[in-house]
Write a structure and sequence with these properties.
Two copies of one chain form a homodimer. Chain A is of the alpha/beta class. Chain A is 42% helix and 15% strand. In chain A, strand 1, helix 5 and strand 2 form a beta-alpha-beta unit. Chain B binds a DNA duplex through helix 2 and helix 4.
Chain lengths: 338, 338
DNA sequence: AATGGTATTGAGAGCGCTCCCAATAAAGCA
DNA sequence: TGCTTTATTGGGAGCGCTCTCAATACCATT
C-alpha cells in the first residue's frame, strides 16, 4: 500500500499541509522543517498520488502529445521518434510527464473528449499534418493550453514549425545555381501543410531564377518510398536534369528508379532530398538534403507549452526554426563532404 | 467549466450514483433510466474526470508503455512505432489509454517511482532489451501488473516475445541447406536478449548441420547500419560465402560494404537479414529476411496485461509468437517472390 | 392481509491531495 | 509592558468520483 501525505506527516512530526508545502516548493517553510521533511520523503521514497493532486489542484503535471496514427507511412522515417524525444527531454527537465495519443481517426471524437474534458492533461501538443484536423479545431475552441507542431495557415494558434518554404527554396535554388535547366519535383501530399510549403519553396526558387513552372515536372507523392519510385518513373519521360524530392524516403525510391533506368547521378540527373534522415549520407551517391532540427522542434514545442500554461496572456506564439542544406554528392556540387 | 456527475444527475433527474452506474455499465439499472441518462450524457458530451475516478476507484484506465530511450539507434527501424501501434489498438478497443514513457537512464529512479507509486497507471508494459534493466527488477518486486516485451532469461515475469531463436536458426539453416559452407554472422549486441537469442539460433543451425562454430566468422554489431558495414568489412578477409545478419538495418550496411568490395550477391556471398522492415524488399538485391509480427506483439502484450489486471491469479504468463522466413533474392534460393 | 424477496435507487463516506484561513509563536515597536 | 506585525504551522473543506449500505417500491407467495 503506497504511503500518503498523512503518513509522511506523521513520520516527520509535522502536519499534512507542511509536507504538501515542501513537496510543492512553497517558500513559507522553515528551513529546518523542510530539511526534516525532505529527509523522510527521500528515505521512504515517497511519491505523491498524481490522481489526487490532479483532483485537488486542477493540474496533473501531464501533457498530451497527439500524433495522427492514420498515416502509417509516417513511421518509415524517424520524424516522430525524434519529435517525441525532443518533447520528452524538456518534460523530464521540468517534472512533466508525456502521455502519447495515437489518434485513430475512427475514435477521434472519443479522443477529443478525453483530451479536453478528462481533466488529466494540463496541456496538449498536437503534431497535425492535415489542414482541417478536427482535433486542432476542437482545441482551438477550447481553453486548454496547446501548441501545434507544424504551422497552421489560417487558424490563430500557437505553433512551432521548421522553415519548410525556405528549406525547399534553397534546395531548389542550389540545383538551379549549379546550372540545371529542367528542375523537377516530387512533392509531398498537398493536403498537408508541410507538403504544400515545400512545393511553394520549389515554386519560389524557380520564379527567382525567372523560370516558369511546368506541370509536367511536378509529381505528387505521399512521403513513401514507393511513391518516390513511381514519381520518378513518371518524371523520366519528361527529361528532367534535376529533381527536388520533398522527402529522403521518397528520394530513396527515386534513386531506385534511376538505378533501374541506368541514369547516372548526378551527371544525368541531380537529386536533392529533404529531412536528412540518418541513412541519407549512406545512399549511393550520398544524398544532398535539407536538415531539419526535429528534436529541437519537439523541445521548442514543449517549451512553448510550458510558457502558455504558466502565463495567462492570450496572445499566440509562433516559432519557425531554420533548416540547413546539407550538400553531398547527389546534387553534383563541387563542394562535398559531410 | 467541465460538467460533473452531479450536473448530469440533475439534468436526468436521478442521483449521482445512478449516473455513475450507467457510466460504468452496471447491470442494476432500469432500462428506461439508463436510456434517459445515456441520452443526457451524449447530448452534453459528458466526460467523467479521470483523476477523480482514479482517486475513488483506484484505477484510472491508463497503462504505461516504457521504452528505453538510451538506445537511439533503436529509432532507425520501425520496431517501436509498430509496437506502439499494436499496444494502442488494443487499448483503444478496451477503453484504455496509453501513456508513453521514454526512460532516460539518467532519471530512471524518478521514472520508476512515478510508475510504481504515482497511482496513475493501472498496469505497465515494458519493452526492455537489457538483461539487468532496473525498471524490470523494480516492477518484478512490486505488485503492479506488468508485461515484459521480450522474454527474460531468469526472472519469473509475464512476457511476450517473438521466437528469435527459431527465426535465426531457420534463417541460417536455409543458407546451409542451399549448400553454403562458410556461413558467418553479424550479431546484435550480446548484452541484449534478442541479440543473444539470434546468435544462439545461428549456433544451433550450424550444430544441426554438423558444422563447428568459427569465431572468425562471428562479428558483434549494435543494430546500426554502420555496424553492419564495419562488421562485413571485418568478415570479408575470412571469405564467408554467406552471412546471417541479425537485423535488416545492419544488412543494409553489409550490402553497402559488399557493393564497395564488388562482391556479387548472392553469387559470391548470400545474405539473410532479420526484421523484414518495409524497405527490405526493395534492397538490391531484395533481402531474404525473417518477418516478425511486431504489431501483433504489442497487441498481445496489451491483451496479456488486460488479463493480468483483471484476474488476480498469480501464475506468470508467457507467449512466444512465431516468426517467418521471407525468401527473396539475396540468399540465392531458387524460390523467390514475395 | 401479512410476509418475504427482488429490482432499483439515493445518501454518505472517503479516496489523497491542495488551498484557504485561522492559530500560534516569535519578533518588533511604541 | 501591551500591542501589532511577521513567520510558520495546523485544520477543515472540498475537488469529482466510486462503493457500500440502507431505503423504497413493486411483485409474488402464503
Amino acid at each position: 500500500m503506497p504511503l500518503t501525505l498523512e503518513d509522511i506527516a506523521k513520520m516527520a512530526s509535522v502536519s499534512r499541509s507542511t509536507v504538501s508545502r515542501v513537496l510543492n516548493g512553497d517558500e513559507n517553510v522553515n528551513e529546518e522543517t523542510r530539511k526534516k521533511v525532505e529527509e523522510v520523503i527521500r528515505r521512504v521514497n515517497f511519491q505523491p498520488n498524481i490522481a489526487a493532486r490532479g483532483l485537488a489542484a486542477g493540474r496533473t503535471g501531464i501533457i498530451g502529445l497527439v500524433i495522427p496514427a492514420g498515416v502509417s507511412a509516417i513511421f518509415t522515417d524517424p520524424y516522430f521518434p525524434q519529435l517525441i524525444q525532443g518533447v520528452t527531454s524538456v518534460c523530464n527537465a521540468n517534472d512533466y510527464s508525456v502521455m502519447l495519443w495515437l489518434a485513430e481517426p475512427m475514435q477521434e471524437r472519443r479522443t477529443i473528449r478525453q483530451i479536453l474534458y478528462g481533466g488529466l492533461l494540463d496541456g496538449v501538443i498536437v503534431s497535425s499534418m492535415l489542414i482541417d484536423d478536427p482535433i486542432v479545431l476542437a482545441l482551438h475552441e477550447s481553453h486548454k493550453p496547446f501548441v501545434l507542431v507544424g504551422r497552421h495557415p489560417t487558424l490563430d494558434v500557437n505553433y512551432v514549425d521548421v522553415d519548410n518554404i525556405y528549406g525547399a527554396r534553397e534546395a531548389t535554388r542550389h540545383l538551379l545555381r549549379l546550372g540545371r535547366q529542367r528542375v523537377a519535383t516530387i512533392t509531398g501530399p498537398l493536403n498537408m501543410i508541410a507538403g504544400r510549403d515545400r512545393y511553394q519553396g520549389y515554386c519560389e526558387a524557380l520564379e527567382s531564377f525567372g523560370q516558369s513552372l511546368q506541370q509536367a515536372l511536378v509529381v505528387e507523392g505521399d512521403f513513401s518510398e514507393l511513391s518516390g519510385y513511381l514519381g520518378m518513373k513518371k518524371l523520366l519521360p519528361h527529361r528532367p536534369d534535376a529533381v527536388f524530392v520533398a522527402t529522403d524516403t521518397m528520394a530513396m525510391g527515386a534513386l531506385r528508379a534511376l538505378r533501374e533506368a541506368n541514369v547516372r547521378i548526378p551527371d544525368d540527373i541531380a537529386l536533392v532530398g529533404y529531412d536528412d534522415m540518418p541513412m541519407a549520407s549512406q545512399f549511393n551517391p550520398p544524398l544532398t538534403t535539407v536538415r531539419q532540427p526535429i528534436v529541437k522542434l519537439g523541445a521548442s514545442a514543449m517549451q512553448m507549452l510550458l510558457d502558455v500554461m504558466q502565463r495567462s496572456e492570450t496572445h499566440t506564439r509562433h516559432l519557425i526554426l531554420p533548416t540547413e542544406l546539407v550538400v553531398r554528392a547527389s546534387c553534383g556540387s563541387i563542394q562535398g563532404g559531410d
